[in-house]
Amino acid sequence: MGKNNTLSDSTASRYSLALFELAEENKCVQEIEEQCFKLVKFINENEDFNSVIKNPTNKKNDLLNILKNISDHYKFNILLKNFLCFLVEKRRLFFVDLILKTFVDICSNRKGEVSAKLTSAKELTVDEIKKIKDELSQNFSTKINLNYKYDQSLIGGLIIQVGSVMIDTSIKHKLQKIENRMIEA
């Protein structure tokens, strides 16, 4: 399974880099980056669409029509629209979420930003998220691009990951540690 993850990560990285280079050539990196955020959000919030892109039995024409409608609705740049259609033609649409997230990471890295993930057990307000982002920016002495996710399965606490640094104060994690100690005893 680890090998498949590496394969998909490297494939996604190549496609993301190609999209970045095309966007850079066409001087539309920021526009494409904003549109990628919208599409990733749409994928994460729409289970039906997520199922469609993950299903290998869907016909190319059906997928192309769906993407055309979404592209028109969100007024995607023609470059992004063509790129998504290219993914359909190459049967790589199931990588689209990873490709777009990697593209956003490339954009952040080029701007000197560091990506971070914040997962909380309770819904945080915009002000709370901003405060955490500001504190992380100050602690890491760089601009932080923060991806926030609410996950009630954590029971309580937060998980913050900046690069390879992870801080896990969730109750779920603490319970797992206790369970592991009990098993070892």
| Proper CATH architecture of the largest domain | Orthogonal Bundle
Write down the domain tally.
2
Spell out the helices and strands N to C: HHHHHHEHEEEH
Overall pLDDT confidence: 91
**What is the C-level CATH assignment of the largest domain?**
Mainly Alpha
Tell me the strand percentage band: 5-15%
Number of helices in the DSSP assignment: 8
Kindly provide the radius of gyration, computed on alpha-carbon positions and rounded to a whole number of angstroms.
19 Å
Largest sheet: 4 strands, mixed
Report how far the terminal alpha carbons are from each other. Answer: 30 Å
Write the CATH fold name of the largest domain.
Answer: Peroxidase, domain 1
Number of strands: 4
List the uncertain runs.
none
What is this structure, in a nutshell?
The protein is an alpha+beta fold. Helix content is 65%, strand content 12%.
Give keywords.
globular; 65% helix; alpha+beta; 8 helices; 12% strand; 185 residues; single chain; Peroxidase, domain 1
How would you characterize this protein structure?
There is one protein chain. The chain is built from 8 helices and 4 strands. With 185 residues, the chain is α+β, with helices and mostly antiparallel strands. The chain has 2 domains: 2-109, N-terminal domain of the delta subunit of the F1F0-ATP synthase (Peroxidase, domain 1), CATH 1.10.520.20; 114-184, no CATH class. α1 packs across α6 and α4 runs antiparallel to α5. It is globular, with a radius of gyration of 19 Å. The two termini are 30 Å apart.
